[in-house]
Amino acid sequence: MLDGRDGVEIVVEDEGTGMTAEAIEKAFEPFFTTKEVGRGTGLGLSQVHGFIKAAGGTVSIASEIGSGTHIHLLLPRADRETAAIGNTTEGPGADLTGKKVLLVEDDPALNELIGQMLEERGCKASSARSGSDGLHMIRSESFDIVLSDMVMPGPLGGLNLAREARKQHPDLPIVLMTGFSEAARAAVSEGFPLLRKPFRVPEMEKAFTPLLRMGK
């Protein structure tokens, strides 16, 4: 169970050499690898961690030297209503080249990953690690669009950030993202475009497209 919700467990096992306690502790850090130079980027497990956490799940590693490795993934089970919520924009995505995007995401690995996705599409991405920092940046800088996580620690979550930003800049496009069902419903009920985590670059582009074309 995940916070009272039904979950789906996935276990991946191998019979390899195993991992030291130090390696397990660092395994989800971006660019950490025990492989030789040129044989690994160190991004695989950090991306897994980012996507699983974004979807509202957990991931853990159990391993000992000489006994192989067990990776446990626990994901929330989607209900039909939740599965129907999401981006339904049709057609090609907008050209994002040169667009100034504020990314608000508290998870370091996910912040880096989504930032890379934005930059790959030509965006000029700035990032904040909390709702409060994001609001400060919105007040002091100009952005073409804001992409914010909804569930973040601290006094200002993503939905409240979006509300405050809308008050101060009614024409500023804001897209919210989450892997949690209740948060998704709250965003949709208030008319904020929503990206369900995990998402791909085309889905992100399509979420941005109508907002950038309408100038809202």
From TrEMBL:
InterPro entries xrefs: CheY-like_superfamily, HATPase_C_sf, HATPase_dom, His_kinase_dom, Sig_transdc_His_kin-like_C, Sig_transdc_resp-reg_receiver
Record EC number: 2.7.13.3
GO CC annotations, alphabetized: plasma membrane
Domain of life, per lineage: Bacteria
Matches recorded under SUPFAM superfamilies: ATPase domain of HSP90 chaperone/DNA topoisomerase II/histidine kinase (SSF55874), CheY-like (SSF52172)
SMART domains (UniProt xref): REC
Residues covered by the Response regulatory domain: 100-212
Catalytic activity: ATP + protein L-histidine = ADP + protein N-phospho-L-histidine
Domain Histidine kinase span(s) in chain numbering: 1-79
Entry-annotated residues carrying 4-aspartylphosphate: 149
Entry keyword Kinase: yes
GO molecular function, one term: phosphorelay sensor kinase activity
Transferase is among the record's keywords: yes
Protein name from the UniProt record: histidine kinase
